[in-house]
Amino acid sequence: MPISISQQDARKLVLQSQQLPASKQAGGTTDATLSAIEHLGYIQIDTISAVQRAHHHTLWNRNPRYQTTHLDKLVANKQVFEYWSHAAAYLPMQDFRFSLPRKQAIASGEQGHWYTPDKHLMKSVRKRIETGGPLMAKDFEHKGEKLGEWRSKPAKKALECLYMQGDLMISSRQNFHKVYDLSERVLPKGVNTTPPNQEEYARFLIFSFLRANGLGQATEIAYLRKNTKPLITNTLKDMAASNELLQINVGGNHYYALAESMKLLNKPLARSKLAILSPFDNLLIQRKRMQMLFDFDYLIECYVPEEKRQYGYFSLPVLWDGKLQARMDCKVDRKSSHLRIQHLALDASLKKIDAFTHALYKQLPAFMLFNHCTQLSLHKSTPQNLPPMPINLTGI
């Protein structure tokens, strides 16, 4: 029989599983970052740099001592690698074998790639890296016209095809540009490279998702993973029938959860602590899920024409009191070390405005420091009559 829990408890379960807001941590700072990546299962990479990029931002919210050098160090130490989850991501090396089903599907042609493979060029590019060592796309000369929707030169397309089918991996990044090398030279000794069978793969996806997200549905677990939903649906049913999973009812919506995760409901949630989130944070990436569980209808508006934007180009969701309560459109002016809040918009349902703004103003100095800013300005707020920002927030 399904267990019914309230929406408030469902949110608490999700937030505790997502390690939000962050709690105090012991041990080394880089170890804490690795622990967060291994727990969450992936960290999405994104190129938008209105504030610190998404992969850094997401990790900073789990590890307040996070430094942007951590990811490079973890890649160099072969503890983390780049590949695809639902999107480009950093993944724990301990999960490497579960990246193989997608690679095999792309290599066999069962799953398409956004670039049409040029087998002859791919062979040539691979050979050059094999003999000459790690290379970036810019190391391949191309004097002709760039082709395709993304205006990419042919060698870049070949590199990406080789990367997605598993021949190449990213050994490092230089100024955010990928450095490609043969997979066998990037992988650490002893890593498990045995492809999982279908049942192993489905169970991995289910356990990983539920561990990091508290509760979930088949559609959510299969999100942007082609051809996996029927397998995941059947495996969920089998695991529930054998009492490996609990069935949870939240307001008429049905989910699955790990029994051990339910213990998180006994832990207090740091409701007074506020978190300024990336639009690509693991908590938020599935918008329909956020609407169902948190009543939070979120759209990142950088892809929306300026005249149609409601909140701003890069509005950051704000978590407080166990709910997503506001959006804060931010832009860092790096030349002047200035954090500009273009628009702070509180949800209409937020009633404790004084307590919320107190928590926000308390968190902003840390957010400024994370973004290497010494100045702060608020240009617009909704509603307009918010409590004034303390003057000491204008500098650190």
User: What is the chain-wise order of helices and strands?
Assistant: EHHEHHEEHHHEEHHHHEEEHEEEHEE
* Contiguous uncertain segments of 5+ residues: 146-152
Q: Judging from the principal axes of the Cα atoms, what is the shape?
A: globular
Q: Average pLDDT, to the nearest integer?
A: 94
The helix count comes to 13
Distance from first to last alpha carbon:
54 Å
InterPro entries: AlkZ-like (IPR009351)
Keywords: DNA-binding
Protein name: Winged helix DNA-binding domain-containing protein
GO molecular function: DNA binding
List keywords for this structure.
Arc Repressor Mutant, subunit A, Winged helix DNA-binding domain-containing protein, DNA-binding, Aminopeptidase, DNA binding, 396 residues, 6-stranded mixed beta sheet, single chain, alpha+beta, 3-stranded mixed beta sheet
